[in-house]
Write a structure and sequence with these properties.
Length: 220
């Protein structure tokens, strides 16, 4: 089975289980599930948000627009990868729009805030992309499901492989926000465990500017 088919099968199984979980909460007359999609439609991560939204909706459409015999209604909001608006938006979905499931997000800071707001509430959160470690770490809750990886996981695997093949010194360069720091920490943990040596650690502010100048760091 290909990775794509495996992922689709996993999503189908998970959605079926989730729908079964919330079915008793849905009105028997309506038989409808409201899904809030909180992903970036604008800004630097817009292409990821658009891809996830299209893929999610396509999968539901392949099943006749229903899961567990219930119709799906979408409420879509653009988080624009802006952590200052994340709490307001997720609470709007919960309290005003009365969604049963929330899908989001891409930016690690935004997703972590979503997890904090959703914990212990009667709403399910599906995290399709963000690798923020704490979502399935200290923020772990029965109503939060990660469909992706953790930032630590990717960094650690890279560090472990490099430590076996390359015993010289390395430098690290990471964006100075949750994902960048966690990727770097995972790498360091594995690389140092494999007797590698890290000469210096660089960070850059996460601005999303495609024209950012790496030359000073590369020169050093």
């Amino acid at each position: 089975m290909t990775n794509r088919n495996t992922s689709k099968h996993a999503l189908a199984v998970l959605l079926s289980l989730l729908i079964c979980t919330i079915s008793p909460l849905a009105s028997a007359a309506e038989k409808k599930v409201k899904i809030g999609i909180m992903l970036p439609a604008t800004g630097n991560f817009a292409r990821y948000g658009t891809g996830i939204t299209n893929g999610f909706k396509f999968h539901i459409a392949e099943h006749g627009g229903k899961i567990g015999g219930m119709e799906i209604e979408y409420v879509v909001v653009d988080d624009a990868s802006d952590k200052t608006k994340a709490a307001e938006l997720v609470n709007q979905l919960i309290n005003k729009d009365k969604v049963d499931i929330i899908v989001g997000s891409v930016h690690s800071d935004v997703a972590a805030i979503m997890a904090k707001e959703v914990r212990n509430k009667n709403v399910l959160l599906l995290v399709p992309h963000s690798g923020s470690n704490e979502i399935t770490g200290k923020l772990c809750a029965p109503n939060i499901f990660r469909l992706s990886y953790t930032s630590w996981q990717v960094g650690y695997a890279t560090g472990a492989v490099l430590a076996r093949a390359h015993k010289r010194t390395v430098t690290t360069l990471a964006w100075a926000y949750v994902a960048g720091v966690e990727h770097s920490e995972g790498f360091k943990e594995a690389y140092l465990k494999g007797n590698g040596k890290i000469l210096k650690e660089f960070t850059l502010p996460f601005t999303g500017d495609p024209n950012i100048d790496f030359q000073p760091i590369l020169a050093e």
